[in-house]
Amino acid sequence: MLATIPERIAALRQLMEQEGLSAYIVPGTDPHASEYMAAHWQETTWLSGFKGETGTVVVTMNEAWLWTDSRYYLQADKELAGSGIGLMKESEPDTPTINQWLQTTLHAGEQVGVNPEMFSVQSYAHLQQSLGSKKLTLKSIDLIRPLWTTDRPAIPDTPLYGYDVKYAGESVTDKLTRIRSCMQAADADVLVTSALDEIAWLLNIRGTDVEFNPVVISFVIVKQESCTLFVSPEKVTDDARRYLAAQKIDVLGYEDVYSALHDLKNCNVLFDGARLNRALYEAIPDNCQKTDRQSPILLLKSRKNPIELEGERIAMQRDAVALTRFFIWLEQTAGKEPLTEYDLMRKLHTFRTQGENFVEESFETIAGWQGNGAIVHYQATATDCAAIDGNGLLLLDSGGQYLEGTTDITRTVWVGEIPAEGTPERERFERIRHDFTLVLKGHIALACARFPRGTRGNQLDILARQFLWQEGLSYGHGTGHGVGHFLGCHEGPQNIRTDNNPTPLETGMICSDEPGIYRAGQYGIRTENLITVVPGGSSEFGDFLQWEVLTLCYYDTRLIEMPLLTAQEKEWINAYHKRVAETVCPLLTAEEAQWLQKKCETI
Amino acid sequence: MLATIPERIAALRQLMEQEGLSAYIVPGTDPHASEYMAAHWQETTWLSGFKGETGTVVVTMNEAWLWTDSRYYLQADKELAGSGIGLMKESEPDTPTINQWLQTTLHAGEQVGVNPEMFSVQSYAHLQQSLGSKKLTLKSIDLIRPLWTTDRPAIPDTPLYGYDVKYAGESVTDKLTRIRSCMQAADADVLVTSALDEIAWLLNIRGTDVEFNPVVISFVIVKQESCTLFVSPEKVTDDARRYLAAQKIDVLGYEDVYSALHDLKNCNVLFDGARLNRALYEAIPDNCQKTDRQSPILLLKSRKNPIELEGERIAMQRDAVALTRFFIWLEQTAGKEPLTEYDLMRKLHTFRTQGENFVEESFETIAGWQGNGAIVHYQATATDCAAIDGNGLLLLDSGGQYLEGTTDITRTVWVGEIPAEGTPERERFERIRHDFTLVLKGHIALACARFPRGTRGNQLDILARQFLWQEGLSYGHGTGHGVGHFLGCHEGPQNIRTDNNPTPLETGMICSDEPGIYRAGQYGIRTENLITVVPGGSSEFGDFLQWEVLTLCYYDTRLIEMPLLTAQEKEWINAYHKRVAETVCPLLTAEEAQWLQKKCETI
User: Fold this and answer.
1) Could you give the 3-state DSSP secondary structure of residue B88?
2) Which residues of chain B have a CB within 8 Å of the CB of A448?
3) Whether the predicted interface score ipTM is above 0.90
């Protein structure tokens, strides 16, 4: 057993030498391009000791480096100490990318190794092309598997379960029929996917393999006459076996997918090169045609059916009850008992667990007090978190997985008393109010948008940013990401960002609407609802679409600078608050309802 | 001499047979991808008799078809009558594209001929790929030149002239230095361009070869140590020769560019495949590397220098005087004398010619009365135009070429009396007002935008459309096109459209701001200014940009539905009108100034 980092690096170098490799890259991903990874695949951590979520290790005969972003600089410094691995700060403009570094460090003719399971077809091709321009070659080989053996955690083998069609809204048979007709349109005989959210959606299965995403670690191959799930046998309980058999889904072992692909002959294989792992691609024999295009599952999954949408609305009610109870508790407790950001995370989780059909959180809650709210990916922990002391601003971004659907909401609220007029604290409060209102105006403008069929999210993005931009302000993240249905809190292909994205918005897609503003060291503000595309009427000028707001939680109106709002914006807030109160109050105790009613008072 | 269309088609088929071609395509373009073409290149007209601006003829052994769009259906029907050439209505959804038609009409192994001068490198490659998918091959060959001989108009040989640096704002030496450093950055030894606006800008030359665009028909090859203009000797007068010699520009004959490229050896040739004609590409020997990327001239040209911008401001004043005088004349004349749309076009031209340094119009004026205003590319002619009868709406889109710069402006005005309350005419007028105001709100919102450096035009597009979209309305054209400086009225790479365009907006770029609404058969509304990108301040969130409005012409405030405007929009209009009055009135007679002052009254 290789007990220390230097031993592991030395053993890797020995294998590299045997294989004629001058460099080896360990990218900190898994064979499914997952957002949340099982411990089995935490190869970067095993090799370097670095425990951050994003990091790539590159080892040559003389050097070893970890690339990670600014969120993890401090952590990496600590965790890499004594390992002999240096830190490449990838958010710094002068830091070379891995490709650049390899191009300048290695010499023409040298070879770089990677495990093709850890790269998408497209990212592998990109790396290959980039190395090729300096006459370096790329070799597919897994050098971690032979080294990391006895102490390696197994691939999770928790049971999978059938996801009731009363929640999914469409049978597996119907989904397969639609996918097969997409395959026919693409002249494809076979479709293969390694994307766990696509598999869970297509086969109406869910699992508990990883945190936050109820997916099942597996692969799928669809043909016209069959559909095969490749999954470890331990996951397939008797119930699961019966369920899968009823859906006419064949079951083979997880690793059998490679030989199943290898055995194909003279057919056209459809895959999504942005998501399929390269090892699967390499398993497809040369006698087959390879058709790389966006997965048809991706688009079908993104357009929620009426039952999925109805489920989302129900999940939103449960979430609203939990959030309302949390904010009542916060108002009653802050300033009276010692509280930390971590306490808030736990408490909010407790309120959510009281909701029917709550399964787990959809991501780790972000509770950012004052300056911590300005750190976009801030994560308080039990041992490292700020105390909620005095009056101040709290940014709270959280979400739940319910059997009926997935939620994701951010509210920024003022905790404590509003500072007295004429004090410096009041001046700060007024600055916060101004920023909060600009963010809210953008949040409303996006929610109110009406747009012709065919419009892309990047065309709408400016609606959320315009008021900030007018004052020379901005935020560095996207305005909206796609959201799954009792699946990933982040999903494609749609989004609302400044970047180009060719996907038109279509009815049933869910996006977040989350502009923000971050004043480093001072405070952060973000306001987020989930919104879904609904029909917006037709005219001689075409079909139009608009948004329905799904999230049901009041805004802290004490933070609004009223003169900045137009009459329409006030009307919108009042109508929204009326809907929140009418929908959520009946689910609360009389006392709680009274509290919420007050928060929803007409402005 | 081939006197009739059938004779020409028959002669072409004879050549096609000799060359083993099953089809020949004549695309109605020229070797420079010009917007306005010299008669010499009107091969489509010669071959088919069709005189419309956009049309492609495809001839096979048994068939001949003209593809054109809906603007030209009536004209094509008339002009093709008896020619044996059929009409393909390319705006109809069921009409096959030329590629589709060739793919279904021809058989694998057959050959299609085109003159490579008439295709860009990219469009040729696209055609080749599309034909290749059905195993058809493409052959580069000019079959029109041997047929269209004695009666073919010559390539224009009007003199070129040096464009004074007092207008251009940057010497040829400085421009060449900048281009050569772009070439170095791309590892290129040679740059070749066939784009006439790029050549005119780079060498500070202008000409009168075609209408509306003061370009010189030519090619240019830039090397590190030399710059060669390929142009017919007739164009190079003694003055021109002295000018070019002073700029150290070598001069060779127009057709010599092909041999000059052919003689290159082992060098890296930079070109813009979207604009370079394919024949030039084919002339580059195989021993040379070919680097296809956006022309560096394009981007430098699009960012106007301070002297170009100052010139634009001066041109706008001259244009404002002409437009003001025109609108005064129109108000005094309409309803008293018989007038047609064509009369308005001529009269406006007359007023423009009275301006200092006016050279020509920058495009054919669009004067659309009532329902004609709803036809986006409407073109009245002396023999086919509407009478300006009674009260109604006039859309007037026009522009001028001045030595100082290029203008392009659209105003929509109400001609005659405002209909009395309670009449159906008044109802129509109120509908027009409503539409006009939605368009104006979008026009103002775009002009008021502030945005971070790096923002693309397609991100801003929705600002101009949002108010129309909210009411289920829309327009089918771009919101803004780039504009040249005493060059093309349309230029890239920037624009403001719904389509993706990767070009960020940069200071000095000029765009139009022209939302509209078109009610078929009833009326059209468009409001257009030219706007230029200027610095918009910096903050901890980065550098911002904003717009300066260049155009100086009042809006018809009788057409505004006042309750739809916000206080800020009214302020914007009042500030703009104040600027128009202050800038333009001193250039008018007292009486004219008084008239304009009234149009610019505070609302």
Assistant:
1) strand
2) 470
3) yes
